[in-house]
Design goal:
Blueprint (H helix, E strand, L loop, with lengths): L16 E9 L2 E6 L2 E9 L2 H10 L4 E6 H6 L5 H13 L3 E5 L5 H10 L3 E4 L8 H9 L4 E8 L2 E4 L4 E6 H11 L3 E6 L11 H8 L4 E5 L5 H9 L4 E4 L1 H4 L5 H16 L12
Parallel strand pairs: 1-4, 1-12, 4-5, 5-6, 6-7, 7-10, 10-11, 11-12
Antiparallel strand pairs: 1-2, 2-3, 7-8, 8-9
Length: about 270
């Protein structure tokens, strides 16, 4: 069994993780709107530069998506993503990678490269695939991607819409032994429309630790996801266009955790939100 990267994931479920997103298309760091490849905006020619930016701002976890892999099932970005994993490792940070991971050997390759967790979407629908992956890699190395529109699953880079209810799959996969889920409302992704926390909470109610993705606009959305008891959230366009400050958001999350723990908190050390 491969153990993945050296980064450490929190053992305590309530420790909320804010993941900066690094989406890679044709070797560049980009953002899309609603998963439409024709709407790409390039934010960095080298994805490692985006990673360094977020790591320097205080991130301990990164969410990386291979958009070529998600769309075509073939990765053109392995070298670029390897650079991101390397700079993260130098900072002691963890990386989860998704996009086009449809073979068990692909999971093994990413984990051997230093990736800590792999996000599995389309392949999870193949009968027996998840069971094999869980036996080979363990539940901590895997995240199921529950991406959809109108609470129904979308697959193959969000290009194909199914009629499968996301919550039904969440229950089924939780019973298999899956622990982690990335929940994306495709209609909100890249639109700064607010995350679909209701859907993420429904998934979490099925026994999975849910990470909300798609639509995070600002600090209040991040704090709302934390208050909802979710395991984390992925922020993309809001970070890149400046409407969400990562350092401030991380401080606010820690502040909230300190207050929950009943620790004495010096309010002057935190920004006003």
């Amino acid at each position: 069994m491969s153990n993945g990267g050296a980064g450490v994931w929190p053992e305590v479920k309530r420790e909320f993780i804010l993941f900066p997103a690094v989406d890679v298309l044709d070797g560049e760091c980009v953002r899309l709107r609603r998963g439409d490849y024709e709407t790409k905006t390039v934010f960095a020619q080298r994805p490692r530069d985006a990673a360094v930016r977020w790591l320097t701002a205080g991130a301990h976890y990164l969410h990386v998506v291979d958009l070529n892999g998600a769309r075509d099932g073939v990765s053109l970005n392995q070298a670029a993503i390897a650079d991101v994993v390397q700079v993260a490792a130098e900072k002691g940070a963890s990386v989860q990678v998704g996009g086009g991971i449809r073979q068990l050997d692909t999971v093994a390759r990413w984990l051997d490269m230093g990736v800590s967790r792999c996000v599995i979407g389309t392949a999870a629908l193949i009968p027996g695939w998840l069971e094999q992956a869980l036996r080979r890699f363990g539940s901590e190395a895997l995240v199921v991607g529950l991406d959809g529109r109108d609470e129904k699953l979308a697959v193959r880079g969000w290009l194909e819409q199914t009629q499968v209810a996301i919550t039904d799959l969440a229950k089924q996969w939780s019973q298999l032994g899956v622990r982690h889920a990335l929940v994306t409302d495709v209609g909100r992704d890249g639109m700064l429309a607010g995350a679909n926390l209701d859907l993420a909470c429904q998934v979490q109610d099925q026994g999975l630790q849910a990470i909300a993705s798609g639509g995070i606009r600002h600090l209040n959305d991040v704090l709302a996801a934390q208050r909802a008891g979710l395991a984390g959230a992925v922020a993309g366009r809001a970070l890149y266009d400046g409407s969400l400050d990562l350092t401030q958001a991380l401080a606010a999350l820690q502040h909230s955790l300190d207050k929950e723990d009943g620790n004495r908190v010096d309010e002057t050390n935190y920004p006003l939100f």
